[in-house]
Amino acid sequence: MVSQALVLEAVKASLSWWRGKQDFMKSYRIAVIGGDGIGPEVTAEALKVARAAGSKFGFNMETTDYPWSADHYLKTGELMPDSALDEYRDHDAVLLGALGDPRLEPGLIERAVVAGCRFGLDLYVNHRPIKLFAEHLSPVKGATPETVNFEVVRENTEDMYVNSFAFFKKGTVDEVATQELILTYKGTERVIRYAFELAMKREKKKLTVVDKANAMRAYDLWRRVFEQLGSEFPEVERNYLYVDACTMAMVENPAQFEVVVAPNMFGDIVTDLGATLQGGIGGAASANIHPGVCGMFEPVHGSAPDIAGKHLANPVAAVASAGLMFEFLGEFEAAKAIENAIGNALTTKKIPSLGSDTGMNTAEIGDLLAGLLTA
Ligand code: ATP
Question: Which numbered atom of ligand 1 lies nearest the CA of 303?
Fold first, then answer.
């Protein structure tokens, strides 16, 4: 008979082995901003699935919660202080839910937090994969997983978003409003270079540049830089589309796209169209990155006040954003496993849609994805 002392020793040994393994395991520091409305609900599920991926692939996540939200602002008057940016820089990534609340001036909290991170951390790439997992998800006739599988690189810190605007004679019938479009050589070069490098990683190496250089002459800089960099990447086929033609092509012939690079404003528009192509904003994920430095990962959707608190939010986009975060952190197996779990759940209709009409609650979808990942 095994003595109690021996059993105790064995338990102690395995506990210390486990602790040692934990100490040895890689650990990532993640800043978490749940935000408003459905933001905290979908972020909880993204973290659930992310932790499941960590256990499977051998890494930990240490999270720091940040309170920035409309509720926090209404209670304290605080938006997001600049000191938070320094704290994020001490983390490996920021995971964000969603911001926006009808009780506040439109855009106030989004500008403070989302734009605050993008500009404050100089996250010049907004990387948005457009991938249709199953034909039944897309409202666009003829869209299939074979034809809808591309990536959009949206410039994230310039263009009409630099917030250089003015009102003259405001509130009178003589009012004049202006807003400037600002492009820099440096800002244009770095994002187009990122897009070329991304195109090089794809089986079919093709990069489509989107602008409106015919009507808005400032975009001539964008085109010239595209041409200049093109000669550094001769294997990449170059394609040119004005933004209006691009929106038509995305619906009529999405198979022509591999990687698309667009200035901030047009990128915002074509990526929303891309989200519809892939089945709706409930499934669209995004990465805001400064390659090699830091990143903020968020679903494309807003705070959806109409369904907040009802457990109807679809967390697929938030989970997919955590997948993009792992890709950025170099945890490629974890990123792929998340993509596969989402693909499996959608193609088999275990998750029947990317909206709020799945017949499942938010946590059930998270549980399902975590289960598929660890199965
Ligand atoms: P914003 O200006 O922040 O984009 P919005 O209200 O225009 O806000 P969303 O908050 O994204 O945009 O909501 C648009 C619609 O999509 C709403 O009807 C919302 O319920 C729905 N929706 C958004 N995200 C989800 C989600 N994750 N799951 C289910 N439905 C969603």
Answer: 10
How big, in percent rounded to 5, are the helix, strand and coil portions of the chain? 45, 20, 35
Q: What residue ranges define each of the domains in the chain, with the CATH number in brackets? A: 27-124+286-375 (3.40.718.10), 149-277 (3.40.718.10)
Give the closest residue to 136 by CA, choosing from 338, 280, 314, 339.
Answer: 280
Q: How confident is the model at residue 17 (pLDDT cuts 50, 70, 90)?
A: low
* pTM (two decimals): 0.91
Ligand 1 first shell, C-beta below 6 A: 38, 42, 100, 281-282, 301-304, 306-307, 313-314, 317, 355-356
Segment 49-70, tens digit of pLDDT:
999 999 999 999 999 999 999 9
Q: How far is the CA of 48 from the centre of ligand 1 (A)?
A: 22
35 near 101, Cβ under 8 Å?
A: no
- Predicted confidence (pLDDT) per residue in 68-119, tens digit: 999 999 999 999 999 999 999 999 999 999 999 999 999 999 999 999 999 9
